Amino acid sequence: MAGAVTLSTLIERGGVYYNVGGSTAAEALREGIKGLVLPKGVDREALAKAVLEREALMPTAIGNGVAIPHPRNPIISDPAEQRVAVLFLKTPIAYEALDRKPVSVLFLILSAEAKSHLSVLASLSHLCQRRDFLELLADRPSTEELTAFIKAAEESWRSGAKG
Question: Model's pTM, two decimal places?
């Protein structure tokens, strides 16, 4: 495969999950991880522990109701198994965001190496500055709607268009 894997592809691989329970960040992360489709060999409990340890260092809420949890170090080794799971929470939770807004959606990143991890963070950070993307997230879109929006944004980035 030529070039970096796209955020839309990583989300298609990781899945979109709705009504994830939990009244704290730790509870929501544990609950969300329970239902994920994970690559072979990834231990659910080890993943939860790694993500919660990372959150203890510094919460990953980036504002506007979004958090981007991830393990501090890669928990998978095969780049073909990288993924991003989108978790829409049943109820928004306090997450120590700088804007103090409760978090209602988590983008859980599972990367195999730093370069792809940073690329995903950059793409998500860029998208989360867009009002139309935040409005889409508030509507809890289907996987198809979400990935179609992101694919269009990725195409505009490749063509050099703003947005």
Answer: 0.94
163 occurs within a structural domain: no
* CA–CA separation, 24 and 79 (whole Å): 31
> Is residue 117 among the annotated active site residues?
no
- pLDDT tens, 41-82? 899 999 999 999 999 999 999 999 999 999 999 999 999 999
Q: Are 106 and 19 in contact (CB under 8 A)?
A: no
Catalytic residue among 8, 20, 70, 124: 70
Q: Measuring CA to CA, how many Å separate 19 from each of 28, 65, 87, 89?
A: 10, 15, 8, 5
Domains contained in the chain, number? 1
Residue of 2, 9, 52, 1 lying closest to 154 (CA atoms):
9
Mean pLDDT, residues 6-10: 95
Q: β-strand 66-67 against 61-63: which pairing, if any?
A: antiparallel
